[in-house]
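Table 4 source record.
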Amino acid sequence: MASDSTPAQPDAQKGVLGWIERTGNALPDPVFIFFYLIAALVVISVALSALGVSVQLNDQILTGLGE
């Protein structure tokens, strides 16, 4: 008496919460995510610096912060 039907999936693998759980399980450790974001920030900073992009603050902003 072999059953031809596929076994039912557990409730944890269905719907939005199942998708969130699978996505969360696929993510690396939070420490590595932090390091990846730092590395991306360094790469973007170096690339923009090489292109000559800079930011200058207005003197009014600087004096307003000191009050």
